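User: Here's a chain of 72 residues. Predict its fold as tokens.
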Amino acid sequence: MFAASHRFATDRFERRLSEEVGALRVEIERMRGDLRADMATMKGDLMKWSLLLWVSQFAAMVGVLSYMLPGR
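Assistant: Prediction complete.
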């Protein structure tokens, strides 16, 4: 009798565990898709800020060099 109830409990646990693992996998895939979409939108923002950084660095270097070099 103990073996039958143990087998029943084990089967019930394994079934519930597999359902939870399946639900977790679905949730992970949904989050992965959301993350990819967010990264795609952030890529444009990163390019914009990178360009702004390089332009401002160039302007700063031109300003420093024009101050250091003798004027004509």
